[in-house]
Specification:
By secondary structure, the protein is of the alpha+beta class. It has four helices and six strands, in the order αααββββαββ. The strands form three sheets. The protein has a two-stranded antiparallel sheet. A two-stranded antiparallel ribbon has the order 3-4.
């Protein structure tokens, strides 16, 4: 069973073909809608807006692990453990927002050993 504890291990997983394919599958399954917004009676969908600064399509939706990848690596690609969320709901879930503004969450990898 692979582990996803370090930043490099997670990066390798998220950059892999299996994850990219699964992410497309889950977004299609969820009709390209944020599932948390849907539960709250709101609609948040994917768009094709382009970011000139980033020189790519703006990320509106992400596929989130309901049970965290780090703690449940065996569920990494399980459909039942994945759902589509908008960036705002994803940030709220992970504590990256506070009331009216953005706060920086401490980088949990900051103290990792560097090889």
């Amino acid at each position: 069973m692979p582990e996803y504890k370090s930043r490099d291990q997670k990066r390798k997983f998220y950059d892999g073909k299996e994850w990219k394919h699964k992410r497309k599958e889950i977004k299609a399954r969820d009709n390209y809608e944020c599932q948390e917004c849907k539960r709250q009676g709101k609609v948040s969908i994917d768009t094709n807006e382009y970011s000139k600064r980033a020189k790519r399509k703006k990320i509106q939706l992400v596929v989130d692990h309901i049970k965290e990848l780090e703690e449940y690596p065996e569920l990494a690609l399980e459909d039942d453990n994945l759902e589509t969320l908008c960036v705002n709901c994803h940030n709220k879930k992970h504590g990256r927002y506070f009331r009216n503004g953005f706060i920086r969450k401490e980088n949990k990898w900051a103290h990792d050993e560097k090889w």
